[in-house]
Structure formats: C-alpha cells, structure tokens
Amino acid sequence: MASKCIVSHLHLYPHLSLHSAIPHQHPNFSRLPPTNLSLPVKFKASFPKRCIILVPRASSSSSGQSSVGKKFYEFDPHPTLTNDDLKPTRPSQRNYHWKQMARHWVGLVVGVPAYYMAGSLVELGMAWWQGIATVVAANMILLVPLVLTGHPGTKYGISFPVLARSSFGIRGAHVPTSLSALVCCGWYGIESWIGGEAIYLFLPNSIKQSSFSQPLPWLGTSPLEFACFIAFWLVQLVAVLKGMEGVKAFQKYAAPTLIMLTSFLLIWAYVKAAGLGHFLNMSSRLSSSEFWSLFFPSLTANISFWTTIALNIPDFTRFAKTQRDQIIGQAGLPIFMGLFTFVGLAVTSSTQVIFGHVISNPIHLLGQIGGLTTMILAILGISLATMATNIAANVVAPANALVNLYPSKLTYRTGALLSALFCVAFQPWRLLKSSESFVYTWLVGYSALLGPIGGIVLADYYLIRQTKLSLKDLYSLSPEGAYYYCGGFNLAALAALVIGILPVIPGFLRKVGIVSSVSDAFVVIYNNAWFFSFFSAGLLYWILASLSFERETK
C-alpha cells in the first residue's frame, strides 16, 4: 500500500520547498508560478507501512522573518486549530520590553514557594552558602533552555501549544501541552492553598479553635482551612479571568510591592536576631557524602521549580519586542533567585535564634510573629505574591493548552476557569505537608514529565529545523503539511517522550512508597530526573529523526 503520510526532508535541496514540490489546495495557488513537481527523493512503492515517519529539515517558510502578524492573514488557518488566543501576535501586540520581562520574573520569584524552597534546604541540613549556590547553579542551568525555548515565541509570535505542533505533530501536540497543563494545575492548587493559609492566619482564635478546625481524615485537612482555600480561590479567579492584559497590569505593581515587603521581613529578622551573625556562621550539618547525596536531587528540584515556565515561556516571549528584550529580561533570573534565596535563608535561620527552632514556612512564621499590623501585611504580601505567581505561571499555560484542544469552542477565559477547577483535585495540602514531599516527591517527580518534552522541542527546533518554521503549516490539517506527519502525530517524538519517562518511574514508585526497594541505578536516575529525561529524550528524538531521513532518502 502506498504511504498516505509522507513528509520529505528537503534540507539537502535548497531549490525546493514543500510548497513548491507539492501542490496545495489554496485559493491563491493558481496565481503561483509553475514549479518543478518532481521530487529527488526515491520512495519504494512496495513499502508496506501505512505511515513513513520523517521529520522535515526545512519547512515551507524558510525566511524566518519575525513580522508574522501580517503573514498570518495571508492564508486561511483551519478553524479547529486557531482562535484569537492562538493566533500569532501582531507587531502592535508586542509591547514587552526587557524591563517588563524582568518585572515578570521578579513577580514570579518573590513568592512563598521560592521562600519555602530556600528554607527547606536549611531545614534539610545545608549551610547558607551551600543553599544559595545550589539555587543559583540550578537557575543558571535552567536559563539556557529558558532563553532557547523563548526564541520561537518572539520570532514567530506563537504560544507553546502552537510551537509543540512542529515537533509532536498537529494533533500530537495535545500530549505535551496536556502534561504541562496538569503540572501547572497542581502548582495553581499549591499557590491557592498558600493564599488560603494567609486568610486562615487572619481569623480570630475563637474560630480557629472551633470544631471546624479539626482535620477530617478523608479530606486530609480541616473544613475551616479548606473553606479559606476556596475563598482565596474565588477572589483570585476574578483577576485570572482578565486575561494577558490583566497579567501585565498586575505585574506592573506587584513586583515593587513584593520587593518592599521582602525587605521589611529581612529587616525584622536582622533586628530580632541581633544581626545576621548566626546566619553567616551557620555550618552544614551534613557530611561530605550526605551533602552530595542531597545536592543533586536538590539541584534537580530547583530546576524543576521553573520547568513549567521554561516550557511555556513562548506564551510570554511572543509579546516581546525583540530577541534582545526577551534574553536580557530573563537573564536576571539567577540573580533574582539568588537574592531572594539569601533573604529566605537569612530569615529562616534567624528563627532558630528568635524562637528556638527553625520555621521554614513563612505563613507559620507570620503567625508566630503576631500583631494586627503583621497580620495585615501578611495578608497583603502573601496574597499579592501568590496571585502574581499564579496568574502568570500557572494559569496562562493550562488555559492555552485547553484552548488548543478545542479552539472553536474554548477561549482563554473558559480555559482559565477549567484550570482553576482542576487544581482542587490535586489536594495541594498533601503536597505541602513536609519539605520532603514538596521537594523530592512533587518537584523531582514532575520533572520526569516535563524534561523530555523540553529536550524534544529544542532538538526539533534547533537541530532538525534550524529555527525555521512554517506558520501556514502550523495551522493546517492538510496531510501535505510539514507537521502533519502520520495522521497528525509525530511517532518519533512520542516514542522519545515515553522512553525518556520510563526509566524514572521505578525511582518515583520507591519515593512514594508503592515499592519498597529498587536498583541503586534507578535511584540515581530519579534523583537526576530532569537531566536524564531532558537529554535522553532529546538525543533519542534527534537520532530517530536522522535515521529515518537517511533510510528514506537512499
């Protein structure tokens, strides 16, 4: 049977393109100049498979110009693949300069989870400088895929769900975007729970000591705390439904306010602990072997902290004015994280002097401080930090992913509402029950899902396509399109994704207690889940794409 899904590599033949080699059913096709319709690639007619899986080295648009807003309307996109939220941004919509990108990251960094992450490193035995070095190293590593993944967003004005179509296929893109969306929904729940804790902190003791504050075994928390969680969830939903313009406006005021409140907390710790001497003299409680056994999973966890953003960063860089703006605006991430980690570690270590024991959770710390002024600042600071992070990091991505599933029926607002509903199912109060469960189960665990996606997307965009995409084919369901592959799925990418995830599963099952013991090799793989899955999946995808091309062009 002749193949029904053939997409040829054309990088060896610069005089041809998919559009010149294969006639398209397009209203303007009759006006195109005549072209040579013969392909120099020989396919065996007796090939028995239904689909020949090839990954094109070049697309029908090789110019790669950034003025995509005008180009988009030169063709008719398939209605099931686009709506106003998925279209490439017009030049007039590109108003993110580097300062605004930097404010975006400040609003993301200055939050309770980042503070909690820093405090967890001290609680687990690291010295202050070891904790800061771990965080800065992780963010410097992450900055590379962050900037690389942001490039197509700025160049073509497309969001991550559209970018994923180039590597996973027009329909296959639903797999990586759905996995990323699930993780974002989990984070949305965590951030909303933190906001609910701030409300609970403000309640009078008479209510907190009532029967409603008693935990229910089947729920895993108390009805009162759950009610506070839902209350914050509802308040936050108002801001969430305002869309990207609401995100930009919110971040404009959130970043400076959060910096001010963080500075107040550091000053309080300095005064109450009579300086930072205890913090600066704090040594590690870990032996050399214990430190290294903790360092690598901690490094992975800190990288995992931002992997959802590293994947979905095109959702934001598509609004950047230039590549320079998106690169410089994001280059400050390791600095911002390093400074905020310093504050988190300094305050956390000071609690040992002030209260006699370490308090790594800032919500619990503010509860210990007490006082009406503190309570008001706590509500303001925690709510602002939580909403700044949640709206930017954990709503846009799953909303766009859901819109990508049904563009003709869903909008950003409905996608955001559904994402908010899904977050409750993650039961975030269980994920935050301890430093161990937060860092080494949640953060390290989901990095095994997102790492291979990032490796495949970057290998496809840089090694296979050399940064050249066809906007027309990204919005086309034509079997002749560059990204249709086999029925809309790139089986090479899906295979690499599965193989990148599988070796991490045994270590994860051991961590959550489903199995009692596994090979030490699987433990090492799990502790380095992001590194292993990112590079193994990316390398495997590149090999599969290269081998299939060489086989079919002989």
From TrEMBL:
Coiled coil residues, start to end: none
An annotated Gene Ontology molecular function: nucleobase transmembrane transporter activity
Pfam family membership, one: Transp_cyt_pur
InterPro entries: Pur-cyt_permease (IPR001248), Uracil/uridine/allantoin_perm (IPR045225)
Record's subcellular location: Membrane
Tagged with keyword Transmembrane: yes
Membrane topology: Multi-pass membrane protein
GO cellular component: plasma membrane
Keywords assigned: Membrane, Transmembrane, Transmembrane helix
Transmembrane recorded as keyword: yes
Top-level taxon of the source organism: Eukaryota
Residues that span the membrane, as ranges: 104-122, 128-148, 179-203, 223-241, 253-271, 291-313, 333-355, 375-398, 410-427, 439-463, 483-509, 529-549
Family of the protein in this entry: Belongs to the purine-cytosine permease (2.A.39) family.
Protein name: Purine-uracil permease NCS1
